[in-house]
Write a structure and sequence with these properties.
The complex is a heterodimer of chains A (about 210) and B (about 625). Chain A is mainly α. Chain A has 9 helices and no strands. Chain A has 2 domains: about 1-90; about 90-215, Four Helix Bundle (Hemerythrin (Met), subunit A) (Up-down Bundle), CATH 1.20.120. With about 625 residues, chain B is mainly α. In chain B, the strands form 2 sheets. Chain B has a two-stranded antiparallel ribbon. In chain B, strands 3-4 form a two-stranded antiparallel sheet. The chains are: A mainly alpha (about 210), B mainly alpha (about 625).
Chain lengths: ~210, ~625
């Protein structure tokens, strides 16, 4: 069913596109005629065919074959309906990201744990080491959670998704700020931002768990 | 040096105290750099017909000025500097692609009055437009950057520059290595060998309809790499046009269009580009409808968070932005009403309402296109805005001159709004990656947005008037000159042909290609020649793709129709490289090394390009002043 939906969608779209561009506007033909035969080259220096005896079609709305176009649109609409009915968004997203909802929560737990470890050891690290640890210990989990984020929408709806992602994105931005501050040597700011990032990610995790409990 | 106190830990400097972000130093350096960049890029837009995004240049210059000369020590301070500078520069493309059309049209005797527009009103329109665009797009930050996580390749490049001092020597070497290779390639291929494209199709003996021509630009490959697999549908749009539709038409189409497909440039100009514009509008409408629940959730989430936690402190209050939109719309009514004699309040109201709605729609389209591909269909969106306004004005019975002037005043406001909206989102993406507070960056954008129009409009009048002969300036002098010429018969008195326009904007010295194109379109529109049939048909298809549930493919495919295929092809190389890198070397490698190299490719070409433009700007300004 899904394949059929895809096929109908694209056949309809391509057929509609062909109907849309099938007839040339008079000004385009005039422009082209003005370029031949003395200037029978296009922008890239290609030789043009002989344009003698061209027919200039009637201008305006008659340039679109509306029956053909309408049929194409109808096929496209059927394709969209079939596609939407056939698709299982949750399974699709899981395949795309390779993560399940449980694993998504696991990424947040891992992020919080790594942040906690980094905060514990921050006084012993040089600023460049703080930035390096952020890159090494947090980047992959941030990316993987982000790639699988749409699972939250399909399972719990847009409001939960928006609330979780608000906290997650603010947390990630806070960690990015910690990286910048560490790179510039501002260790106090780096620590404050790491703590804030941890709190925001904890909140994201809490919201996700709350949604799971219903 | 910034920071309250300094000490050493494991051989490295550590600083205590507040981390500098939105400082006066950053704002003032941003104003100065922004003004310099805006003058250069505005002149380039008039002279060469294209504009360059100023954020990368501002970040690099800011790095040198703030860190090198002023001994400042904050990545985020430089981020504010580049935000202010690019906000100032946002006026260069916004104004130079639209307002000069009035000077170009004024050379026609029947339209000579269009250049006598109210300058303070135009300036006010540009500033008001910039503010409305920002107020509209700021609430979309959460949806586009936090939720959809659009890549914004230009934003990644700027963030890579900003972070380069702390990213370590290896990444910095990749960044600067990429920049040097790209800059050298640009210099050798474009400036020495004068190659723009490589016609692979001709070498392989393929017919011209396939348009297998690659644009010679490592920057474009870099942009494609940063877009990754997300850029696939952009390429698909181009391939649909030139590798599917054109061959079918060449076999089954009518004789006239069969000839046209063998001229890809003509085919794009008259068929694919208008189709792309229509499709973009349809896709944007569909996209807005589909994204509406998400936008609503984002705004409610912001409101919920504002009552309880710290995440909301980072955002500008929605009520403030809504007030700015309402006040901006009221300003547009005033501007439209005052823009031309004979304008009725009803016409002004209609123009302002539709103009405001279009700012929102076009702002979303451009922000999404820049977010996914780094290309902005600004000129296409401005064209639609002017089309809407002219249709209203003509149907409400305004005269030709009044129609053009009023539509350009409101149209310039819309163009500035769209330009600022896309720049804001790009800067907010850079800000996200370096950890900037969005609210501060948004304030920085407002702080810079008013200055650009003042500089660019001033420059425009300087260039238009400095070389103008006295008889073209003062009608009384012109009458005296005319009389003396009549008296002199066919003597040696110098005659001045206003239609030829051998001075200022529109002359051979300052051709203003984009504004000239807009001027010719305006003439056609006033005479009732709009390809609305193609916009409508393509709009329906774009709408269907947008609501198909296949992500944001509608806008991407539409942009593939709209853009020249040589750029699409080169861009596709970058996308394929990223996909191959991710598969073979892994995501981490692509992010650690691929992104700095790709960012370097973008920066190198942009800098060499600007480097070649600067001497022309100085020489051109000097010659203009001397005339």
């Amino acid at each position: 069913m899904k394949t059929m939906g895809q096929v109908l969608l694209w056949v309809g779209f391509l057929s509609g596109s062909l109907a849309t561009v099938f007839y040339a506007p008079a000004e385009g033909v005039g422009y082209m005629k003005a370029m031949t035969p003395e200037k029978a080259l296009d922008d890239h220096g290609f030789e043009l065919p002989d344009m003698q005896g061209v027919v200039i079609p009637e201008e305006g709305w008659h340039l679109i074959p509306w029956v053909w176009y309408g049929f194409s649109v109808a096929v496209c609409v059927v394709g969209i309906v079939v596609l939407r009915k056939a698709s299982n968004p949750e399974q699709q997203l899981e395949q795309a990201s390779g993560l399940s909802l449980v694993e998504l929560g696991g990424r947040l737990t891992q992020l919080v744990r790594n942040l906690e470890n980094l905060i514990q050891s921050i006084d012993e690290l040089a600023p460049s080491q703080i930035a390096a640890q952020i890159d090494e210990q947090l980047a992959d989990d941030f990316r993987e959670f982000a790639e699988g984020r749409n699972l939250i929408t399909t399972e719990y709806g847009l409001n939960v998704f928006a609330d979780v992602m608000t906290q997650f994105a603010s947390g990630e931005r806070s960690v990015n700020r910690a990286w910048s501050a560490a790179a510039d040597g501002y260790v106090d700011e780096a620590e404050t931002c790491l703590r804030r990032g941890r709190d925001l990610l904890l909140e994201a995790h809490r919201l996700l768990n709350e949604a799971a409990k219903g | 040096m910034s920071g309250d106190s300094v000490e050493m830990r494991q051989g490295e400097l550590i600083r205590r105290g507040a981390y500098p972000e939105m400082t006066w130093q950053a704002i003032i350096v941003g104003w100065i750099l922004g003004a310099l960049i805006a003058v250069s890029i505005s002149y380039a837009a008039l002279k060469l017909g294209f504009s360059i995004e100023g954020s990368e240049l501002a970040a690099i210059l800011g790095w040198g000025v703030l860190r090198g000369l002023m001994r400042r020590t904050s990545i985020l301070e430089n981020n504010i500097n580049q935000t202010v500078a690019s906000a100032v520069n946002g006026a260069s493309s916004g104004i130079m692609f639209s307002v000069p059309a009035l000077f170009i049209l004024s050379k026609k005797p029947e339209l000579s009055g269009v250049a006598d527009f109210n300058v303070p009103l135009m300036l006010f329109a540009c500033i008001a437009g910039a503010f409305i665009g920002l107020a509209f797009v700021i609430p979309l930050r959460k949806q586009m950057i936090d939720f959809q996580r659009l890549p914004y390749p230009g934003g990644i490049a700027v963030a890579t520059i900003l972070k380069s001092p702390g990213a370590g020597i290896t990444k910095a070497m990749y960044l600067f290595g990429g920049a040097i290779v790209s800059g050298l390639f640009f210099y050798v291929v474009k400036k020495v060998l004068h190659y723009e494209d490589v016609g692979v199709g001709a070498l392989l003996g393929l017919p011209p309809r396939y348009s297998l021509v690659f644009y010679c630009s490592l920057m474009t490959i870099g942009v494609g790499f940063l877009s990754g697999k997300g850029g696939f549908w952009f390429g698909a749009g181009g391939f649909i046009c030139y590798w599917l539709l054109s061959p079918i038409i060449s076999t089954f189409g009518s004789p006239d269009v069969q000839g046209m497909v063998e001229m890809p440039g003509v085919m794009r100009k008259f068929v694919y580009k208008p189709t792309g514009i229509g499709m973009l509008i349809g896709a944007a409408m569909g996209g807005i409808i589909m994204a509406f629940p998400l936008i609503r959730s984002a705004i409610s989430s912001m409101n919920r968070a504002s009552k309880s936690d710290s995440a909301s402190r980072d955002e500008m209050p929605i009520k403030l932005l809504a007030t700015a939109v309402v006040m901006g719309a009221a300003c547009l009514v005033f501007l439209a009403y005052k823009s031309a004699p004979g304008m009725s309040l009803a016409t002004a109201l209609l123009m302002a309402i539709l103009g405001t709605v279009w700012i929102w729609i076009a702002g979303v389209i451009v922000a999404e296109c820049v977010g996914r591909t780094n290309w902005s269909p600004l000129s296409g969106m401005t064209l639609i805005a002017v089309t809407i306004l002219i249709v209203i004005a003509v149907n409400m019975g305004l005269g030709k001159t009044e129609t053009i002037v009023s539509c350009m005043v409101v149209g310039a406001a819309i163009c500035l709004a769209i330009s600022q909206a896309s720049d804001m989102m790009l800067d907010l993406k850079s800000g996200y990656l370096v950890g900037a507070v969005p609210r501060r960056q948004q304030m920085a954008q407002f702080v810079g947005a008013w200055l650009g129009p003042c500089i660019v409009i001033g420059l425009m009048f300087l260039l238009e008037n400095a070389g103008r002969p006295p008889e073209a300036v003062d009608p009384q002098v012109a009458a005296v000159v005319e009389t003396s010429q009549e008296n002199a018969g066919s003597g040696d008195a110098k005659t001045f042909d206003i239609e030829k326009k051998d001075y200022g904007i529109g002359s051979d010295a300052l051709p203003a290609a984009q504004a000239s194109a807009l001027a010719s379109v305006i003439e056609g529109l006033v005479d009732g020649n709009v390809p609305s049939y193609r916009y409508t048909a393509a709009g329906g298809l774009g709408f269907l793709l947008a609501i198909s549930g296949l992500g944001g493919i509608g806008v991407m495919v539409a942009l593939g129709f709209y853009m020249p295929f040589n750029i699409v092809l080169t861009y596709t190389i970058g996308c394929v490289l990223r996909i191959v890198c991710n598969k073979t070397a892994g995501n981490r490698w692509a992010e650690e090394f691929g992104i700095p190299i790709a960012a370097g490719l973008i920066i190198g070409e942009a800098l060499v390009d600007v480097g070649f433009t600067l001497p022309k700007v100085i020489e051109g300004l000097y010659q203009t002043m001397m005339m």
